[in-house]
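== Item description ==
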Amino acid sequence: MNDRIKSPAELVVNAVRLSGGFDIPSEEVYQATISSGLMGQPLLNPTSVEGWQGGEEWINTGSVVERINFAADFLGDTNKVLVKNIASRNPSRNNLLEICLEELGYIDLHHTTTEALNDHINDDQFLINKDSISIIIKLIASSREFQMT
């Protein structure tokens, strides 16, 4: 298991890369920058010339909620490349979680997290489509394992 939480800058850059990045400057670029600041690490304004301080400077309840919301909303956007790539692979209930974890960078989930996600996927009412893929991505992005490096 990883032992260090991703900094806000690492989390934002990771989410942007995983979701396909930006081709041109847009409102979305601005919002990603703002989100990093709300997590305690403004991307273009470090606290000193040495860069940002360690976790004590930016780890608090509010920033944790912001980082989970940012990662889940950004990565789970059905209009982004990540969801489209997973959907194009025609996943089944048997391999949806594996495909999502692969596309998100081969995250090693704790067995209890894996069981909970598989229970959700195997629910009789769960249908595989872009919206349900988005939900699984959001749940993974909200996990402790995704937040760690």
